[in-house]
Sequence to fold (304 residues):
Amino acid sequence: MFNCDDVIQLLTEYVDSELEPDTKALLESHFGACPACDQFLKSFRRTVELTGEFRCEDIPEEVSIRLHSFLEERLRTSDQEGSLDEG
Amino acid sequence: MQIMAETPPIESDKVNPRPLGPLKADNDLPLVERVKEGDHAAFTELVRRYEGKVYQLALRLTGNDMDANDVIQDVFLSVFRKIHTFRGHAAFSSWLYRITANAAFARLNQRKRHAAVSLDDVLPIIEESSMHEVGSEWSQKPDLALFNKETREALESAIQSLPDDFKTVIVLRDIQNLSNQEVAEALNLSIPAVKSRLHRARLVLRRQLGEFLGGPG
Fold:
C-alpha cells in the first residue's frame, strides 16, 4: 500500500502513463480512498495541461521573416566570399 | 558568440555518462545530408521545420522576445556553420535543442540578469506541507483554471523563475512535448534525471499556480 508521500513521488509517472499496471492500480486505489490526494492529482494534472497550452504558440511572423532575411544575407555573403562570416 | 555545434553537455550526468550510440534513424537526416553538401534550399526547409520550436525554447529560457530573436539567429547560423560536425549518434533535433539551450544560457550569462531561485529553496516547503491541507478553489476545482491571459502570465512567470536546468526540462517535455528519451539526449542526462527534474519542476509550478489562483496550492 502507498502512503500519501509515496503517491506524490509517483505523480509524474502516473500522469505520463509510465507506471506498471500493478503500481497504477495501487495509486488509483489510494486516490479513491484519499480525497486530499485525489485533489492534489487533479491540480497537478491541470498544471501539466495548462503548461502544454504554450505548445500551440507559433513563432511570430515578423520573427520568422527577420530570421530568414538574416540567414539569406549570411548565406549570400558566404557564397560570395567562399566562407561563412564569423559575424 | 562562440557556439560549439557538437556541444559540450549542458549538464553532465554524473551517475551514468551516456556513451555514443549507433547512428539514429532520423527523419531529418536526408535534409541534413543535403545541408552538408551546401544545399541552401534544404537548409531553409530545415529552418522552417524547427524555427517555431527553437524560438519557443529560446523564449522560455531567456524570458524575452529580444533575446529569443537573437538566440534563434545565432542558433541557425551556428547550425549551418557547424553542420559537418553533426554525426548522427543522437537525433538532429536533440543536437539542435542542445545548441539552443546553450545559446540561450550564454545570452543570459552575458546579461547577468537571470537569478532564478534554487529549486531546493522552494521544494522543501512543498514537500513538508501536508497533503491533507484545506482544499483551495484550485485544488477543489482545477478545471476552473482556464488558460486565459492572467493564468498564462502567472504560469510564464512561474516557469521563468525555475532554475535553468529545470526550466529546460519543463519546456522540452511539457511545452515541446518531447519524450523523456529525447530530452535526455538533448541535455545529456539520464532518463531518471530528466524524470526527477520534471517532477520537481511540475510540483513547483502547481504550487505557484495555486497561489496565483488563490489560496494554498
User: Anything to note?
Assistant: Residues 40-62 of chain B form the longest helix (23 residues). Chain B has ten helices and no strands. Chain B has a mean pLDDT of 80. Chain B touches chain A through 50 residues (CB under 8 Å).
